[in-house]
Amino acid sequence: MKVFKKSFTQQEPIPEAGIAAAVEVMRSGCLHRYNTLPDEKSETDLLELEFAAYQGVPYCLACASGGYALHIAMRAAGVSAGDRVLCNAFTLAPVPGAIHNSGAEAVLVGVDDDYCIDLEDLESRAEETAARFFLLSHMRGHIVDMHRVMEICNRNDLFLIEDCAHTMGAGWNGRKSGTFGDVACFSAQTYKHVNSGEGGFLTTRHPEVMARAVILSGSYMLYEHHFAAPPKETYDQISYETPNYSGRMDNLRAAILRPQLSELDNQCERWNRRYRALEKILRTCSLILIPKRLEAEQFVGSSIQFSLPHFREEQVLKVVEYCGVRGVVLKWFGDSVPRGYTSRYDSWRYLSRLSPLTRTEQILSTLLDMRIPLTFSRKDCALIADIIVDVVQECRT
Fold first, then answer.
1. Number of other CB atoms surrounding residue 263 within 10 Å
2. Which of 313, 356, 363 is CA-nearest to residue 90?
3. Which residue segments constitute the domains of the chain, with CATH numbers given?
4. Three-state SS at 25
C-alpha cells in the first residue's frame, strides 16, 4: 500500500537574503516602520514601493494581516453600518468577518460549477439588494471571468474590492489579479504565496481611498513617511475624519518578504508544475472531476480542488479518512461543522442575512481541497495523486 510521509504544513525556509535582512533590522532595533531618519526609507517603505511596482499600481500599504487589509479596505471605501456588501458564499471566514467588522450586512452569492462566484446570481442579487459594494474572493486561486465581473460592476455601480489572498502572482487575460477592482487585498500569512507568518497588502489607484487606509492603519500624522501613497495635501481633511485602527506591518516582516517578492514569479511557476503533476493523474480517474480552467486564467496552483460528483456524504468522509491514514491531508468544504480553516457559509451565524443556497450546498457537498507545499517534489505529487485515485476507487465500490 502506497503511503505519503511528508508534512502538508511544512513550508520552505525563508531565503537567506531575508534572514540576513531580518537580522540586520533586529541589530538596529528599528522594527517600527516609522523609526527612520528624515527621508530614509524603511524596509516597510521599500516593500510597499516594490509591491506597487510589481502590481503596476500607484499605491500600496503593508498591513499586519490580510484580514486586517480587508477590514480597512471596507472602511476606506466608505462602507458603514447597515450597508449591504455582496460576497462569495464559497470563501474563508475572514471575508465575511471583514464585512461584519465594518458593521455592514453580507449578501452571500452562490458558487458555480467551476468553483468561482456565480455571475448570474451576482447580477441578480446586485439588482435585488441595490448593494453598492462587492467583496470578490478569488477563493483558492480560482479567478472568474473578470471582464464579465467588471461589466456587472459598471451596470450596478458596484465598488469592487478584490480579495487576492490566493492569487498573488496570478492574472486574468494577461492582467494581474488585484488590478481590476477599486481596491485589492493580499495576504502574506504562512500558507500564502509569500510568507511572513502574518502580513498583508492593500493596493488601489484611488488617492483618497489610500489616504484613508494609511490613517486607518495607524500612521497618526506620519503619513508623509509613506512613499507608495498620495501627496500630503490628500490628507488635509481625511486626517481629521478618519480613526486609527492600528494594524501596521513592521520592518522585520517586511525584510523577510522583500527577497520573496523578487522570486514570486519563479515560485508561481514551481507551484504550477506541481499542480499539473497532480492534475494529470487525477484526471485519469473518471470518478474525479476537476473543472477545466479557461485559457485567460493565469492561475497559481498552490492548492488543488476536485469534486466527487457521484459520491454520497458518507463516501466523501471515507475518502478524507482513508487518504489521511495514508498520509494525504484533504479538506472537505461540504462539512456542516467548521473544522480548522474550513467552514461552510451557513456556519457564519453572526451574519444577519443568511438564507439557503441550495445549488452552492450541492457543489460544496463533494468538493475536496488540498494544499500543495513547495517542499513537495513533482514525484511526491505523483505519489499523492496515485493514493487519492486508489482511495476514491476503493470508496466507490
1. 14
2. 363
3. 16-262 (3.40.640.10), 264-396 (3.90.1150.10)
4. helix
